[in-house]
């Protein structure tokens, strides 16, 4: 099909920026307008170099605004998500907003929706999940599946890494400052996926109508514990520290203390609850390979990025280890 307009909700974020760049370079989408609404369009300043991107100041949580944004669109991608917040905030972002998106899509005559959820969501009762994050993500999926007439594809990624991530790079920066890494959820299992592979999967889903009705697991080739990922990030950045695994009670105290600091917390009790569920592919759903994507390993991408910032002293220290 010929694409005239793609609406990306959450397009100023980490995944959205990669998706917009990849879609703008896609030959099948030549001439397609990419509309990226945000309450703070300045966050998407990196998108300004893409000539087909239109950054619009808008509140996507408003139903009338959503419907107006969807006029003339051929497809919608929903990337809006939060990692921290109250039960009401998770409900608003992960359940109420998808419900409004589905309603606006159908009213505006835009049935095609690609929605990004998360690995670890329960297949059955959303309330069976241990965290507010996972419960709300599962409930959001159910809301979208119940919308009759919606041509829906759901992607479930593991933790996403890349040059601008707040995961691998965050732990690398922390180890440059701290003599030891006291770590909650050290044994939690992840299957990290490169942001460019997720963006490629989104493009393939938009172009291939055979993916309508599918739930696709987006995961990299390696399963790692959180402690392993922290050690690797320290090694690649030249500041590897000893990892001190914290018991659950100590981790929750640490999370509570971090929550008192200004800005978005590094860790919350709800994050600890989410990590009780392995963030890895189940193998019961199609994966990136089903889309013709061979996922990149975390080391192949992040080691060169972090090593590029090493000083000579860092390299000598790393070589001695």
UniProtKB/TrEMBL annotation:
Domain of life from the UniProt record: Bacteria
UniProt-listed CDD domains: NDUFA9_like_SDR_a (cd05271)
One of the record's GO molecular function terms: protein-containing complex binding
Domain NAD-dependent epimerase/dehydratase: residue ranges: 7-209
InterPro entries per UniProt: ComplexI_NDUFA9_subunit, Epimerase_deHydtase, NAD(P)-bd_dom_sf
Protein name: Complex I NDUFA9 subunit family protein
Protein source organism: Sphaerotilus sulfidivorans
